Amino acid sequence: MESLLRLEKICKSFPGVVANDHVDLEILPGEIHALLGENGAGKTTLMNCVYGVYRPDSGTIYWKGQPVEIHQARDAIALGIGMVHQHFMLVPPLTVAENIILGLPSPREPLLDLKSASQQIRELAERYGLPIEPDVPVWQLPVGVQQRVEILKALYRQAELLILDEPTAVLTPGEVEELFKVLRAFKEKGLSIIFISHKLEEVMSISDRITVMRAGKVVDTLPASRTNPHELARMMVGREVFLQIEKPPCTPGEVVLELENVRARSDRDLPALKGVSFQVRAGEILGIAGVDGNGQTELAEVIAGLRRVTDGRIRVLGRDITHCTPKEIIDMGVAFVPPDRQHMGLLMDFTVSENLIGKSFDRPPFSKYGFLQKQAIENFCAGAIYRCDIRTPHAHVPVKLLSGGNQQKVVLARELSLQPRLLIAAQPTRGLDVGATEYIHRQMVEARSAGTAILLISTELDEVLSLSDRIAVMYEGEIMGIVPAEEADLQQIGLWMAGSRAHQAAETPQTV
Amino acid sequence: MFEQLVEIFTSVAFYAAVIRLTAPLLLAAMGGLVAERAGIITFGMEGMMLMGAIGGAVGSYYTGSVLGGLAFAMLAGMFLALLYGVMCVSVGANQVVSAVALNLGALGLSSTIFALVFSNRAVGVVTEVVSVPSMQPVKIPLLGDIPILGDILFNQLPLVYLALISVPIVWFVLYRTTIGLKIRSVGEHPHAADTVGISVVRVRYLSVLFTGLMAGLAGALLSIGMLNTFQENMSAGRGFIAYTAIIFGKWEPLGIFLGTLLFGLADAIQLRIQALNLPIPYQFWVAFPYLVTLLALVLFVGKATWPAASGQPFKREGK
Ligand SMILES: Nc1ncnc2c1ncn2[C@@H]1O[C@H](COP(=O)(O)OP(=O)(O)O)[C@@H](O)[C@H]1O
Ligand SMILES: [Mg+2]
């Protein structure tokens, strides 16, 4: 069969990084082709070359057998290539219809024809099973629906090849299933799909063929039917990966964190925490599971001092910190890995080293008499970059140029360098690949074994199950129940997550 | 004194003056709005207005016709806008700093041109006021005959009409045409616009040139509209007021219209009250419209919602 798209020896470098190194890739008509690789492997760069966002340094792109020059996105669109970027390319105040027709000539030029566009969008949405309301401003839509708008944008431009860059990173498990159904329907209709991901299970379940990339190079291309997650993980990371974490037995010490009937309100001023109580002891990991949006973010924020507590008490090492400032709480030995590293966890325009000392730059040895101590900072950062395996050309690169996994390593390195008594880790591995996830998990287990109390808040149930010593489930601002990990019953936890206390009402203590 | 005030506020001429004084602000602000919505800060309208004012006077002087003056005014405004575009769009310089530089440059340039063209060669300075052909009010048939309203609205200079109808026109272009959609997307999320094949650079240049054209006309309205000559620093901060009106109006044509109207009203009031010779220093009344603007901004605007990419140069990465 003739290929739809073929890449031959594509190379693309950025200052200090070879992002794509002689990459060959072939996409057949009507196939779902997964591009699998760790963060920083060069997947996004490669697709940006295909879509005309970047110009490859060398190499050739063939479309339906013909060599083509793609100078800008417009050229790619004209060929029939559509791309859904990882960070959506939607204009928030514009409506769905306006976003979809943006840049296209109108049938009534120079006037817009939103009516007929809306009509066409509705038809298209119907045909592909992607229900949408064309006249709503995009900013009002949940992320999953925004993704739908992006997909429709590509379909509206009659894409024959749809590139999806990490589409599942922003979706709930239910939404992922929905998306997969839609993608399979596209395939039926003859579209080709490039599906970028670093999640092995997903890739196995959706794709026909899988191309694995590592450090800018293609490792191999295999049919999904002839491989397995373990083999893929090894190809991706370049070594054997332990999908299971090894954990020494838990020896809990004194109570480090104690919440007593804590209440707080959300940004929209609705009750977000409705009387939350629990304790975390030194040397244990308490995992909080639950579907996103059930008060997890607010929980992390009240403990870190970033959100006002309306009622109840929070104590760290016996001291009441309910109304302390974040700085006072940091000084108590509380470290915080926030759920959103790009906005809360890091100053994206600051360098790696500035971020690494972001919480301790004002004390010795990094600062003396109000002056920064360059040598001490350099030494510390060099050590941290080495120890934590942060992949960066050097310590003075703006952190925004690092891949997500390496950014998170910077956050964790900073937080753990404070030798905290308590670590609040909220979504510590969101959007990270196997290698980085494994690394972060190992670091957390190590900190716990060294006596740090850890509160892990995650919407990835697998993560909570595999890391925690005790597991709590949050639903609508309440703790539904807490169980020791070895007694955890998946069905029970599932019920709690869905808000049902039904069949074990007697055994759902608020405090353990 | 109370009677005098009543007399002012009940006179048709007062309200006609409000409209007349609003017009230059409105022209500039509607032009500025377009570039603002494309993500360009239009702090440089002051300079563009000054260039328009001198352009209008010089053009009118040399061609002997008002139309010639208007053409010169537009070109002069667009010339400055082009420089501004090069700095903001192509070079990616800081927009506020560039605007300040151009405003100062325009002040010097306009005064120099004025001296060169109109000076008494022997002395080297402008010794007498040279008058140039200037615009005359045009009464609109039928509408102009409506009692009161006709005299307020429909017996004005042609550029005043243009200012008034520019409000619905700019609204229509922004919200009902493809170029308007492009402009709005470029000001909110230039990268998104780029990925669907819109030339961010072209849209921004065109928008800023339009601002220059409109601000140029606004300047001409000052020099060959309200007077028949040029005066040094003739715009006297009106370009900044127009900019403030854009913020006051939250980047929406109707709101901006109200903002400029408020300033026009304050300006008309101060002109009349100054004439009353009250025991208040005239400087207070000169400052009065600016105080009103400031107060209005503080009291009524609340949180402004800027176009998200306002002031940010656009650069494609990895090219
Ligand atoms: N615009 C850029 N400037 C500099 N370096 C970049 C840029 N984009 C990506 N990189 C680097 O190129 C490498 C590949 O990145 P990317 O293609 O985003 O990986 P992936 O999508 O597989 O996670 C990384 O090391 C990243 O830091
Ligand atoms: Mg990527």
List the helices and strands and how they pair.
The complex is a heterodimer of chains A (512) and B (319).
Chain A lengths: L4 E10 L2 E11 L4 E6 L5 H8 L7 E6 L2 E3 L4 H7 L1 E4 L11 H6 L12 H15 L14 H14 L4 E5 L7 H16 L3 E6 L2 H7 L2 E6 L2 E7 L5 H9 L17 E11 L5 E11 L3 E5 L6 H9 L6 E6 L2 E2 L5 H6 L2 E4 L3 H5 L6 H5 L10 E2 L2 E2 L1 H14 L16 H14 L4 E5 L7 H16 L3 E5 L3 H7 L2 E6 L2 E7 L5 H8 L15
Parallel strand pairs in A: 3-8, 3-9, 6-7, 7-8, 13-20, 13-21, 16-19, 19-20
Antiparallel strand pairs in A: 1-2, 1-4, 4-5, 9-10, 11-12, 11-14, 14-15, 17-18, 21-22
Helix pairs in contact in A: 14-15
Chain B lengths: L1 H8 L2 H26 L7 H19 L2 H26 L3 H24 L19 E2 L9 H5 L1 E2 L1 H19 L1 H11 L1 H6 L4 H27 L11 H11 L4 H23 L6 H20 L18
Antiparallel strand pairs in B: 1-2
Helix pairs in contact in B: 2-7, 2-8, 2-10, 2-11, 2-12, 3-4, 3-5, 3-10, 3-11, 4-5, 4-10, 7-8, 8-10, 11-12, 11-13, 12-13
The structure holds adenosine-5'-diphosphate and magnesium ion.
Commentary on this structure:
In chain A, helix 14 (404-417) packs parallel to helix 15 (434-449). Chain A folds into two domains: 5-237, 3-Layer(aba) Sandwich (Rossmann fold), CATH 3.40.50; 255-497, Rossmann fold, CATH 3.40.50.300. In chain A, the strands form five sheets. In chain A, strands 6-7-8-3-9-10 form a six-stranded mixed β-sheet, sandwiched between helices. With 512 residues, chain A is of the alpha/beta class. Chain A is built from 17 helices and 22 strands. Chain B has one domain (2-303): ABC transporter involved in vitamin B12 uptake, BtuC. Chain B contains 13 helices and two strands. Chain B has a two-stranded antiparallel sheet. In chain B, helix 3 packs across helix 10 (200-226) and helix 4 packs antiparallel against helix 10 (200-226). The termini of chain B are far apart. The model of chain B has no long low-confidence stretch (mean pLDDT 90). The A-B interface holds A 12, 14, 45, 48, 51, 53-55, 72-74, 77, 83, 85, 89-94, 98-99, 101-106, 109-112, 153 and B 176-182, 184-185, 188-189, 191-198, 308, 316-319. Bound molecules: adenosine-5'-diphosphate (ADP) and magnesium ion (MG). Magnesium ion binds next to helix 1 of chain A.
